[in-house]
Amino acid sequence: MHSALYKRLLRMLHLSRWRLRSLFTYICFTMLKGKRPNEALLSINIFQRDLGDQNPLVRAWALRTMAGIRLHVISPLVLVAVRKCARDPSVYVRKCAANALPKLHDLRLEENAAAIIEIIEILLNDNSPGVVGAAAAAFAFVCPNDLPVIGRNYKRLCEILPDVEEWGQIILIGILLRYVIARHGLAKESIMASLLPNIFSNEKTGSESDTGYLEIKKTYEIVLQEPELVAMVSRSYLAGPDKHLLHPNNSDVISSDYISSRFTSSKTDDNVKILLQCTLPLLWSRNSAVVLAAAGVHWIMAPMEEISKIVKPLLFLLRSSDASKYVVLCNIQVFAKVMPSLFAANIEDFFISSSDAYQVKALKLEILSSIATDASISIIFQEFQDYVRDPDRRFAADTVAAIGVCAKRNPQVANTCVEGLLALISPKSINSTSGSMDDEAVVLIQAITSIKDIIKQDPLSHENAIIYLIRNLDAIKVPVARAMIVWIVGEYNSIGNIIPKMVSIILRFLARGFPSESIETKYQILNAAVKVLLNSKEEDFDTAKSILNYVFELAKFDFNYDVRDRARVLRKLLSCYFSSSGLEEKPNNNEIRLLLVEHIFGEKVKPSTEMVNNRFYLPGSLSQIVFHAAPGYEPLPEPCSLTESDMVKGLEEEPTQAEANDSDVDSGSLNEEGSYYSEDSVTASTRTDSETTASESDNNNTDSLINLSDVGKPQEETNDLGELMSKGDLESWLDDNDNPGPSQNVAERVPSARISIGDISTRTKPKIYTLLDPTYGNGLKVIYKYSLEESAVSPPLVSVDTFFENCSSYSMSKILLTNEDSESSDQGSSLESQKDVPVFAPMEEISILEPGQTIKRVIHVHFHHHLLPLKLILWCNDKKHPVKLRPDIGFFLKPLMMDLDAFSQKESQLPGMFEYTRRCSFTDHLAELGSDGKDGDVSPTKDSFLIICQCLASKMLSNANLHLVSVNMPVDVNLNDASGLCLQFSGEILSNSIPCLVSVTLDGKCFEPLNASVKINCEETVFGLNLLNRIVNFLAEPQLTT
Amino acid sequence: MLEKQLTGHRVDRSICAWFWEQSISQPDSFKVLPVIASPTHYLFQIVREGITFLACTQVEMPPLMGIEFLCRVADVLSDYLGGLNEDVIKDNFVIVYELLDEMIDNGFPLTTEPNILRDMIAPPNIVSKMLSVVTGNTSNVSDTLPGATSSCVPWRTTQLKHANNDVYVNLVEEMDTIINSDGVLVKCEIFGVVEVNSHLSGIPDLTLSFANPSILNDVQFHPCVRFRPWESEQILSFVPPDGLFKLMSYRVKKLKNTPIYVKPQMSSESGTCRLSVMVGIRNDPGKAVDSLAVQFQLPHGVSSANLTANHGTVDILADKTCSWSIGRIPKDKTPQMSGTLVLEEGMEQLNVKPTFQVDFKIMGVALSGLKINKLDLKNLPTPAHKGFRAQTEAGQYEVRS
């Protein structure tokens, strides 16, 4: 935008009405943000003046606009404004203040973090439900893991929950659930109890203390039919399915004491009880998201016999909009699988209506087939019969599949099912449908597949069905269906009394028609003939042999080479049967062949266990709908990971908030904030509770103000190891390489604006993470950094340099890092077999570590692009320490050498959807420039440019394994203006060698914080986005000097 | 085209292009899928009257929250603009923008209560258009904060004054029924709404009680309903918003009777299919059954249809929907539609069966049998006029053949 125009706009801002101002500023800021932050700042004082306006709406709008500007420069001003507005007398303004906090946090300024959390806590403590809702949203966005903040207000938050506006309720329910689990553990009466070790083992049945458990166990077995599935679901909720699938039997590793100490009772624990009580009325909400969130809490925490409370509200949601119907059904599907009895009485709610969308119909079918019981199965079949005649043939095919599933689950109805299915493939129904062949074929194939599956369960009792199929073989024209029937013939050729007699006739018939069959049928005819030969008795042997021989002869001259090849292989294998050819020189060779043939064709198929989709995510989450962990998905926190000491620390701080609240909020607010429902909805017992806590905090009020500045990191000392490791901001790293003075580097200055790569690599300092802190590891200190070397074991592995240091005074032995699941000894095979989960290659054991000694080991990990910390076990002196290895996406890459031309060519091939950009600020060079050029502009411009380049390049290369392709400088160099400076990096993804291009363009003055715009071109979009976020994060992170 | 980025992370417009490309390339399945995982974003979509509302996110969030919010936006827009279509949105672009601006902030819903929005942003009408033309003052945005935002009943504006105090309670019920091919009633339930239209001054406190609340299977409430009295005595105690709103919705399950019967019969032989449908009263609801209509989709494979009725009119629409509108059932005869469907070449008989959707309306009766006992008004300056009505419509009333 032209600057003259901008000035005029600014003048307009002064004059115009406040509502228009926000519109103006929004438009011009989005345009000017990148280019002229200084001029944009001119308008700030208008908003600051508005903040003092009489009209609360004006104040709120001024705050919203200011926070919406999103410039780093003004963030302190906004913070002050938010702090002021958080104590505004008007509810609306306070609500807007809460809404402004995520925007501030978005700028990722470390120095603000503590202050933001402090304001959130003040707002969470607010009297008005509307403000609490907005504050909860801010909490979930800014610091979802800072649960002590919730703990201090837990009871009050629960009580205010029904009054909070609906959007806030959704968020607040999730937060409260997380807090309860982290603080008090899981409820042992709930479905999560499947994690309890003595649910399944009967070892301690005699002991007195276990009667409680026994009772639970009884209800547990009545309600749930598939305990493994339940256990899997509840483990997925806790650990996330990706990690859970990696360690399928990790429950064995965890000792039973550990587990049972992490359980509480939802009947006796007041904290759990109050949460359940306060979410109960929310099941009547008109907002479907609130209902589902409340249902999720009950699903996880409520005693099993009380879960049925969620059924009616959930089913009611099926009458809301089509879109939410689909989402609700997705969730019900999981509930129904785990606990079929829950919905068993409500089958008619899942009956299909013709106006349902196809996806909804499919989901309902699946739910119906999983909740079918002996009592209801006949009604359900009646329904299914109607569905089979539905005009939507795809849906009809699904119904046929569902019938198969039902039959498998309830074997006593298998016969009825088979009869119904056979009616579908009767010649009459096939012939009549020649008009729409394609659609019908789908149904037909599915019908035969279902029959095949049912027969597999119990072949003997379905002999008639097999015969019926064979009789209709002639009428069935669809190749896949024919092939399937031929397979059935071959597989069950010796079952019952009639089939063995028919088989040779059928085979003869098939052999005659062999040339005109389709390819897949030909394969099956070949296989069936071989199977028949192997099973045939003495008298039939010759017939079978001659038929097979005939088929082989026909196949020899087939048009399809694959058929020819198969026939040849089979013939060679079976050569012992065709002794006419002179192949008898090695009799034992024949033995082997016979054995081989027996193995290939002789084995009978076992009824396969049903495959379930074993990815479960928390109810109501996005991940559950899309079946993968969406970015930002977090499983439930570790039960009881929040210790008493965190809470104690919290209590000390409480008086500050209480006082702040009393003095500021209350005095300002009028009598406008009466609670609408809470008065009657709170039970008497809880009220006394809250009164006592209130009086406690009043007593504490006499203490002096605690220094608020450390509110942001209260758990630094007190948290247990797991918490510590998972905190992003607590990563500590060492900075042992001292900076080579910039002057040395400048000496090597290249006349063209390109910096040599060797020069940069000396300056890179890979970030060092702590795996185990000496205080927790009895003096063993383990640090690790990602290595730039390619892994020696296998290319897709990421190699990590790990340093073991003994800080104690005695020697240590047997130090070993293993997967969390230490039982699976065969690491090598799991490396190959498990495709999608992070895999950890075994490490060479350190037999002894003397005091003061440091040993380096390189470990190799295949992360498969998983960004969640990898849980490992560190063994030392036969004691195990759980540790977490934090993946760094920057090192899932390896440098890809390419020149500038190749780079720009590749870049032009990856436009549009493969290109993502984000902006951030970059300040590292300021320190360097400051130390170097005290006398300001005396040093030539080029130098400051070089230093910026070096800072940026070294930061990039120390945090990501990339190759620096080129550095482009703007040609019309303006003194001190670094705009246009562009660094280009290239790398390729380790696992699949897809190239990934990174360009960083700078913008701004040399001696000021620069705006960096990072662009990534990569075909792998998810990886690219994650990498982009990582790069922006570390670029914006201020440089730490030792 | 106007674009507003709600959060700091820019969402590239190419996501819309991606969406349209996909929805054009796979029209059937894609259009109805509410949650879509695109390569870069997760999309939530709802379709209302031909207009697609799309929300996108890159991180985990409750999907129902997105969908519910979009529904709320659609409701508010159609309420403001008196309907939803492309033209009306184009004509009122400024209002749409202002509404969205007020309803969502930084990706989190801000004000969604229609009554408050109405106070903040005046809905368009002829008078305001005239005023703006005459005075040149184009803003329809209120300058003061509505009092309701800060009160404990955020859905009600304070200081309301009506010349006539009146309140109407209306039971609107929809009947969902499935009758299977054997003519057996497999599912019959009522989905009802208690609509209240209140024009009361001050801050009134209302209590509504039912004569037979035990028949209600499940309920959903407007936020104004207090939970505790319902839990203990099953009475509704609330401070109503102004104007028309849904106080509560309820469900009555497992009803035994339907007011009317629909009997389809089909028999097919050698390329044609005879069809006859009979409709009549089964259980007289006591009031006239009105605007009766039967609709069904001609199945694939039907090339032409020749259907006539002895009462009402039969239309076959372009999308192969056959609709027979009967209106009111005559006293002297039973309405019947009959005729033949001609199948396509080579087809002997029809093995798919269409489903008949029935539509009707009965005024003055709540078929669920729910009865309002009494409505108490408290805290009113002047006595008010009370009125009750009831009606039943067909919801998903389906008869399979």
UniProtKB/TrEMBL annotation, chain A:
Transmembrane segments: none
Start-end of Polar residues biased regions: 666-707
SUPFAM superfamilies named among the record's database cross-references: ARM repeat
InterPro entries in the record: AP3_beta (IPR026740), AP3B1/2_C (IPR056314), AP3B_C (IPR029390), AP_beta (IPR026739), ARM-like (IPR011989), ARM-type_fold (IPR016024), Clathrin/coatomer_adapt-like_N (IPR002553)
UniProt key word Ribosomal protein: no
Chief localisation class: membrane
Top-level lineage group: Eukaryota
Gene Ontology biological process terms from the UniProt entry: intracellular protein transport; vesicle-mediated transport
Acidic residues composition bias: residue spans: 653-665
GO cellular component terms given for this protein: AP-3 adaptor complex; clathrin-coated vesicle membrane; Golgi apparatus
UniProt-annotated stretches for the region Disordered: 651-720
Record's bilayer topology term: Peripheral membrane protein
Presence of keyword Transport: yes
Record-annotated AP-3 complex subunit beta C-terminal domain positions: 726-868
Function: Subunit of non-clathrin- and clathrin-associated adaptor protein complex 3 (AP-3) that plays a role in protein sorting in the late-Golgi/trans-Golgi network (TGN) and/or endosomes. The AP complexes mediate both the recruitment of clathrin to membranes and the recognition of sorting signals within the cytosolic tails of transmembrane cargo molecules. AP-3 appears to be involved in the sorting of a subset of transmembrane proteins targeted to lysosomes and lysosome-related organelles.
Similarity annotation: Belongs to the adaptor complexes large subunit family.
Name of this protein: AP-3 complex subunit beta
Organism field: Ambrosia artemisiifolia
The organism's taxonomic lineage, starting at the top: Eukaryota, Viridiplantae, Streptophyta, Embryophyta, Tracheophyta
TrEMBL record, chain B:
Signal peptide per UniProt: none
GO cellular component: clathrin adaptor complex; endomembrane system
Localization per Swiss-Prot or TrEMBL: Endomembrane system
Origin: domain of life: Eukaryota
Organism: Ambrosia artemisiifolia (Common ragweed)
Gene3D superfamilies: 3.30.450.60, Mu homology domain, subdomain B
Annotated protein name in UniProt: MHD domain-containing protein
Keyword vocabulary terms for this entry: Membrane, Protein transport, Transport
Family indicated by similarity: Belongs to the adaptor complexes medium subunit family.
GO annotation, biological process: intracellular protein transport; vesicle-mediated transport
Residue ranges of every copy of the MHD domain listed in the record: 164-400
Keyword match Glycoprotein: no
